[in-house]
Amino acid sequence: MLKEKVLKAINQQINNEYYSAFLYLSMSAWFQGKGLPGFANWMYIQYQEELTHGNKFFKYVHDRGSQVDLKSIAQMDTDFENVISVFEKTLEHEQFVTASINKLMDTAISESDHATQSFLKWFIDEQVEEEASVNEILDTLRLINGQGNGIVMLDRELRQRVFVDDTVTAAE
Ligand code: MG
To answer: What's the 148 CA to ligand 1 centre distance in angstroms?
Structure first.
């Protein structure tokens, strides 16, 4: 059984992950509407990844003999200023998620929950990757000023991304 403080923080993190999924699904829809199917594809894969993150926490809570407490998902943005602002928002959101996972790790440490600390390492590494990939796209977008032929080229590139469920290959 998980200690109360750790369980409460993980249940909150499950909500954060599913909120992230819906935020990226909303961004995917926005890109689709703007005629950018590659960007829409990239965001749709983000959505799928976030679902697997939520599900990984979900399974962990049950593996520890505790109870998942699902909360409602807050309304996410559905309209965005431009392509650059979508990725700025994405980076900002991932930085928030990183901070919340770090706080969760602090709680696991202060509660001497070694299993949760070990479990969270996967997410800490994952966040480094998440922020790096968003930063890379953001750098390219700024170089091309978020418009013109560059956007069309980048859209083609992002169309190549395929979904891989990292949560089943690692730490299982
Ligand atoms: Mg996540």
So the answer is: 31
Question: From the CA of 59, how far away is ligand 1's center (Å)?
Answer: 15
**Token pair for residue 47?**
């959505």
Does 106 map to a domain? Answer: yes
Number of domains forming the structure of the chain: 1
User: DSSP assignment of 126-164, as one string?
Assistant: HHHHHHHHHHHHHHHHHHTTT-HHHHHHHHHHHTT----
Q: pLDDT grade, residue 168 (50/70/90)?
A: confident
Mean pLDDT along residues 63-78: 97
Q: Is residue 165 part of a domain?
A: no
Taking phi over 0 as left and psi of -120 to 50 as alpha, with beta for the rest, 146 belongs to left
Q: Kindly state whether residue 171 falls inside one of the protein's structural domains.
A: no
CATH number at residue 57: 1.20.1260.10
pLDDT averaged over every residue in the chain: 96
Distance 149 CA to ligand 1 centre (A): 31
Q: Residue 10's domain spans which residues? A: 4-158
